[in-house]
Design a protein that fits this description.
The chain is mainly alpha-helical and 413 residues long. The protein has two domains: 181 residues, MFS general substrate transporter like domains (Growth Hormone, Chain: A); 204 residues, Up-down Bundle (Growth Hormone, Chain: A). It is 80% helix and 0% strand. The protein is built from 16 helices and no strands. It is globular, with a radius of gyration of 21 Å. The chain starts with a helix and ends in a 20-residue tail after the last helix.
């Protein structure tokens, strides 16, 4: 079951990582307008903040969450195809609206999927499985942009969206076969005549109550609060690296393609870091790993800002990737450890939605900075990583879970 989960996760997340660049390439190829292409990408990412928490509630309430995940995969792929076939035929505003609706489902491909891991791996294997799950993000980050480039060169911009949708559909069997919830406690039994037993209105009130409870869990739990806020700030800074990499490639070598190579080095280094964590086994202090991973990511961005030669930028990218990879594994481990079992999906999808939206904001801020110079964007990104480290350490007294086993897997909170 774990290997089927991993295969599905890699396919879904590669499709997810392809979706933004694919829409950019397709939009530019068909309309010739960079503005339309950028707005399609913005629409696909900015709505995640609204979709994530609601998706989390629905996944927590579902007795077969895998079926809901499969529906999200299919809906996301359908939205991308509708945008593709509407380019040049329907008003741009309509297509941007379709991208916004599709983007609501985006957190299911990231946090919603990861939230199901404890039921696949079990408490004994959770620590190592979590590292493997984080590696799937690194694989997707490495393969997604590369596949977009290859497919666009061989078959044009529209073909990239088709391949992206195909990968999402390929993940459907793995999602559909995820195990059901054995002891479903997300929704208390309704008493006759109560508001929760009063049709759609009662169900709506129950969902709103669970949304409030999910946010309250993140806010009241110090570890979750720090991890959620710190990772969002860090993701905003990470966008500075992604946007400035092509510009740095031009500045150092005269070719923007070398900037894509820097991103590939970052993803490969993150993959290697998570492979080491997976081979090592249990880690005692995931909160510390989260802090140090963020610090190393910032150090890599600072090194890249001062790189005077391409080889130095490659080294900096490798340092940044090692930090990013270990940071992601530590973040998931903290969430698995601290999130109550009945609210786990909401914790993961809310965190994912905040990171996606934060990345969109960082991308918008990075554009003008990178246009001035890649170094200015990278310095800003490093400063944001330092701010994330501060958020992650404020009020922390060095306490963490003594094992990699989630608290929710040991019976909830």
């Amino acid at each position: 079951m774990l290997y089927r989960y991993m295969a599905g996760a890699v396919a879904a997340r590669t499709g997810d990582d392809m979706s933004g660049p694919a829409l950019l390439v397709a939009g530019l190829a068909v309309t010739g307008s960079p503005l339309t292409a950028s707005w399609l990408l913005a629409g696909l990412t900015v709505s995640a903040a609204f979709g994530g928490p609601l998706l989390g509630v629905l996944l927590d309430r579902a007795r077969r969450p895998g079926r809901l995940l499969a529906g999200c995969l299919l809906g996301y792929a359908t939205g991308l195809l509708l945008v593709l076939y509407g380019l040049g035929q329907v008003p741009d505003a309509v297509l941007i609206g379709v991208a916004v609706v599709a983007g609501l489902l985006g957190p299911a491909l990231t946090g919603g999927w990861t939230a199901q891991l404890p039921r696949v791996a079990g408490p004994e294997l959770l620590s190592r499985a979590n590292a493997l799950d984080s590696m799937s993000y690194n694989v997707a980050g490495l393969a997604g942009p590369a596949v977009v480039g290859l497919v666009a060169s061989a078959g044009g911009g529209g073909a990239t969206v088709l391949v992206c949708a195909g990968l999402l559909v390929a993940a459907l069997p793995a999602a559909w076969s995820l195990p059901p919830v054995r002891a479903h406690s997300a929704v208390p039994a309704a008493e006759p005549g109560s508001a929760s037993d009063d049709g759609a209105a009662g169900r709506g009130r129950a969902i709103r109550a669970e949304l409030v409870e999910g946010f309250a869990v993140i806010w009241r739990n110090a570890s979750l609060r720090r991890a959620t806020a710190g990772s969002a700030v860090s993701c905003c800074g990470l966008a500075m690296l992604v946007v400035s990499a092509p510009v740095l490639g031009v500045e150092l070598t005269g070719q923007s393609g070398h900037g894509a190579l820097l991103l590939a080095v970052t993803a490969a280094s993150g993959l290697a870091a998570n492979a080491v964590i997976a081979a090592w086994g249990r880690v005692r202090r995931w909160d510390r790993v989260l802090v140090w991973g963020t610090a190393v990511l910032g150090a890599g961005m600072a090194l890249a800002a001062g790189a005077g030669a391409f080889w130095a930028a490659v080294v900096a990218a490798a340092v940044a990737g090692a930090g990013q990879g270990s940071q992601l594994t530590a973040l998931f481990s903290v969430r698995h450890r601290e999130a109550p079992a009945r609210l786990r999906s909401q914790v993961f999808t809310t965190g994912a939605s905040l990171k996606i939206t934060s990345f969109a904001i960082g991308s918008a801020l990075a554009g003008p900075l990178a246009a001035y110079s890649a170094s200015s964007a990278l310095v800003a990104g490093a400063v944001l990583q330092a701010a994330a480290v501060a958020v992650l350490t404020i009020g922390r007294h060095g306490k963490g879970s003594p094992t990699g086993v989630s608290r929710s897997a040991r019976g909830g909170r």
